[in-house]
Amino acid sequence: MLARMLAAALVLLAAAPLDAAQVVGGTLRPYWHVFIAYAVAWLVVLGWVVHIARRLGRLDRGGN
Amino acid sequence: MSSWWRPFAAMVWKDVTVELRTGQRVAAMGGFAVLAGILFNYALAPTGARPQDLASTLIWITIVFAGTLGIGRTFELEEENGAFAGVLLAPVARDALYLAKVVSNLLLVLVTLVLLVFAFTLFFGLDLGRSPLMFWSSLTLGAIGFVGTGTLFAAVTVRSSMGATLLPVLLFPVLVPVIVFGATSTSRLLAGLGADQVAGPLRLLAAYALVALGSGAVLFRFAVDDG
Amino acid sequence: MSRTSGGRTAPSVRGPARWAVVLGIVAGALILFFHWMVFFYVPTEASMGIVQRIFYVHVPAAWAGEMAFGIAAFCGGMYLWLGDERLDVAAETAAEGGMVFFTAALIAGPLWAKVAWGTYWTWEPRLTFSLLLWMIFLGYFLVRASIANKEQARRLSAIVAIVGALDIPLIHVSVNWLRSLHPEPVVLRQDGPQLDGRMLATLMVGLLAFTVVFFALFALRYGVGLLERTRPTDAPPEPDGSGLMMEES
Hints:
Strand content of chain A: under 5%
Strand content of chain B: under 5%
Helix content of chain A: over 70%
Number of strands of chain B: 0
Oligomer: heterotrimer
Number of helices of chain A: 2
Order of helices and strands of chain A: HH
Number of helices of chain B: 10
Largest sheet of chain B: none
Structural class of chain B: mainly alpha
């Protein structure tokens, strides 16, 4: 998951200059918004995975 | 049929009698409403906004806050003395219990509303517009929906260790329709528009009241019965 | 009525576990493909530029959240009716997923709004609607966490979910009603008629990817939930009424 996000970040940085001409004002701010939006979305989902994994871990320790 | 109506009437009668003897909840809610009017006046004074322009907003916000305060105590008296457990042992239809609590809460909220509108009329020179009847139907329909949901959720929060502090968190998100349609209709009426201008929001308020009462009557048994 | 049956054993978890693995693999592939589409395949939207790409994460996340909350309310209602504890596990699982995906949507939405409309928050109906649903399910989890008697907590939280779901049509009408009073500026254009075929394809893959991710994690969390409910029955019964007991922690 982390690797996937890093890849997404790289992709973003690589893709940014290509499209810069079409962006109003040409600032980098919109890219950061996109990056944060995707990163946060997958981080929140990852948080749920961690939450589930911890519950499972607690079961393993308590169950047997 | 009488096995439905008799406990229903007895519960309403008991709640009204308790309230008439102690006057606690009316005093708290009415006092809250009038004092909120005074605080609004001072909070609005420096802004230059005229309170009568915001009257519809202030009425709905105040009644929801004051009402939540009172409704949160619906089951507390019974719960403290363990009396509700006794009531639940009796073979009484749960929807009769729920609707009895709704009626007694509704009476409380309506008394508070009368006090509130009276105070606002006095303080802010409120003019009820061309059709006071429509104005009161809007407030009453909104109150029915509000009390219908509030009474059900009060039965939920009475079991919670967070108590009545949990009630607004549960209640306010689902009260959005009441506020939107209620404030729309009353503000139009206060602005002097005719009854035909508020038929839409009033119908939606009535729909909300029906959904609230129906879901409450069906779901109440799951809130009070164990297992 | 619905006591935990001690007799339920491991095999009932095998189904969810298999689904979690299969769907997890599909979800991983879909996520990779989805990001390829978002960052390489789809053309940049003319008027809004790069930031429009937030759209492809925001809408699917909101969709997954709405679906999850729908499942939570439905399973909550069926739990009240049938009293089968597995339905409560499913409801709790779906509600957790709904919170997760709506949180993502609620963070992505304002980030988009900031660039597109110049402000983080507008009272755009769908944004407001998402926030209200999120708040309803915040109440759902507060009810579950603050009631010591778990049996009671399950029933009462189901009531909250059902009432929330029943009010959804009216909440929807009311938040849209507000918009008709205050006409919003350029709001709903970019997902309207001028949606290009490749954009539509990306959106559809996004919707599919988030749906599969949700169901993969749903299966996993549901299996864990089942194990949690079946294992502790060997232990002595937990004391009731001992104040605040966080069921979630």
